[in-house]
Write a structure and sequence with these properties.
Strand content: 5-15%
Number of domains: 1
Order of helices and strands: EEHHEEEHHEEHEHEHH
Number of strands: 9
Radius of gyration: 19 Å
Bound molecules: zinc ion
Helix content: 25-40%
CATH topology: Aminopeptidase
Number of helices: 8
Shape: globular
CATH superfamily: Zn-dependent exopeptidases
CATH architecture: 3-Layer(aba) Sandwich
Largest sheet: 7 strands, mixed
């Protein structure tokens, strides 16, 4: 054992300052709410007093900290669809906004074989403080917006934007360019596949690949989409396609076009009963 091991930096909300990012940002607030976009893993930011969670800057630039390219695509998508978009402000290594707080990976102690020093033996008190500062403000904002829209008779399509690595940790290549993820409500899947295939002949679309939505381990789709019965989809894009400004813009354009087509053709879009428990 090393005797001079650095003490792990602990989260303390009183140490957040004006140079730390807000817990969420909302783009295009006045946009038409035909779509509500979210980006749970938009940021690799860590509160400044947490010393990068004890990780190197290199580790914090990797996909373990955030979804590379996803925020860029979502910004273009918000503009293309004229839709509001919500971006979480902090790294998923601080607290993962797409995990229930009860998930063992809500505050991951290890991510893709990298130990996260500040996430070892996090007390329930500290976990709750991270959630209060970096998780709930983002999700409450989204919940409030969706509830107000539904109360006003609107049926927005809820779209959760993510990105995935081109290779698995064992080196195996992932062939899909994009993935369409859902759990119980698949009504947008076939129309979206048709729309993407019409735009990009031969496109390789993963249906619940490279991940599947799973109620106990995912948060945003079950909570914001399924629980409210809203039409919804989680869109995953392969990172090597969107890690340049041109790539991000191109895929945002394709996704905007596909979503518009589906919004126009998949009518009527209805509120379904809570499907989280209908298995
Ligand atoms: Zn993600």
């Amino acid at each position: 054992m090393m005797s001079a091991m650095r003490e792990s930096p602990r989260f303390d909300p009183t140490l957040l300052d004006s140079e730390d990012p807000p817990p969420f940002t909302l783009h295009n607030q006045g946009g038409r709410p035909r779509f509500i976009l979210t980006c749970d893993h938009a940021s690799a930011a860590v509160p400044r007093h947490m010393d990068g969670l004890g990780l190197t800057a290199d580790d914090l630039s990797r996909h373990i900290a955030w979804d590379i390219g996803a925020a860029e695509v979502t910004k273009h998508l918000a503009a293309g669809l004229d839709a509001p978009a919500y971006f979480s402000g902090y790294s998923r290594l601080v607290i993962d906004c797409n995990r229930p707080l009860t998930s063992p990976t809500s505050i991951p102690s290890v991510s893709d074989n990298t130990q996260v020093p500040a996430n070892q033996a996090v007390s329930p008190h500290e976990a709750a403080a991270r959630a209060a500062a970096c998780y709930w403000p983002y999700h409450r904002q989204i919940s409030g917006a969706l509830d107000r829209l539904i109360a006003a008779g609107e049926i927005p399509i809820f779209v959760a934007m993510h990105s995935f690595t081109p290779r698995m940790s064992d080196g195996a290549a992932r062939p899909w360019q994009i993935g369409l993820l859902f759990e119980h409500d698949r009504r947008l899947v076939a129309p979206l596949k048709a729309a993407f295939s019409a735009q990009v002949p031969g496109i390789c679309i993963g249906e619940n690949e490279p991940y599947a939505i799973d109620g106990p381990s995912d948060y945003s789709i079950p909570e914001h989409g399924q629980k409210r019965g809203l039409p919804h989809i989680e869109i995953e894009i392969r990172q090597d396609l969107i890690d340049t400004p041109e790539g991000a813009e191109l895929w945002a354009k394709r996704i905007a076009e596909a979503l518009e087509t589906v919004r126009d053709t998949a009518q009527p879009l209805e509120i379904l009963p809570d499907v989280n428990h209908n298995t």
